[in-house]
Amino acid sequence: MGDMKRALIVIDVQESFRALPSWERIGNPKIAEQVNRLVRLARAGGDLVVWVLHTAPGSDTPFDPDSGHVRFLAELDEPAPDEPVLRKTVHNAFTTTNLQHLLTRAGVGEVWVCGIRTEQCVETTTRLASDLGYAAVLVTDATTTNPLGGLTVQEIIERTEVALRDRFARIATVAELVAEQGSSTG
Predict the structure, then answer these.
(1) E strands along the chain, which residues?
(2) What strand order describes the sheet that includes 170-172?
(3) What angle do CA 114, 120, 121 make, to 5 degrees?
(4) Distance between CA 159 and CA 34 in Å, rounded?
(5) How many CB atoms neighbour CB 56 within 10 A?
(6) Which three-class secondary structure state does DSSP give residue 147?
């Protein structure tokens, strides 16, 4: 499986969330640090990096392109010129974009998924990737979310891990992936 092409999908790590009042309760406001580590790891491995932004045109919210907030978090590494930047209008990154076409054209068989919010766009994209036949890896410490429905951020992330583990995805940490890639480059 070592020769299977991989892609890292970076979902909605964008200023729109920082513009919301709920940002003050976000689980990991420094999510860009973990995502940057993953991006650098993927690039070092020759993997495709795909960037996704959530947009809600005409919504008069921070996700409306007219708001000026639909851009990557300032502290995030910039997408390289050859890395696709997709704009979606639904929770998963496939339905309203050409993501599947890009992955197919690149011969990708495995996807690493990270971003904001763990249980929403990240989980939905991971489930769909699995259903489409990709080996999915959910990198939960490179995701974050807000408390929801009486659950803490940690409880939401744990629920997502339990729901997806061994059925839809492998659950991994950035450190685990870094260690694995280090051992496979020798």
Answers:
(1) 5-11, 48-54, 85-88, 108-116, 135-144, 170-172
(2) 85-88, 48-54, 5-11, 108-116, 135-144, 170-172
(3) 50
(4) 21
(5) 17
(6) coil
* Active site residues per annotation: 121
- What are the E-state strand segments in 55-156? 85-88, 108-116, 135-144
CA distances 6 to 35, 139, 171, 174, Å, are: 16, 14, 16, 15
Residues linked to residue 110 through DSSP beta bridges, in sequence order: 6, 135
Per-residue pLDDT of the chain (186 residues; tens, 9 = 90+): 445 699 999 999 999 999 999 999 999 999 999 999 999 999 999 999 999 999 999 999 999 999 999 999 999 999 999 999 999 999 999 999 999 999 999 999 999 999 999 999 999 999 999 999 999 999 999 999 999 999 999 999 999 999 999 999 999 999 999 999 887 654
Name residue, tokens 């076409």: 101
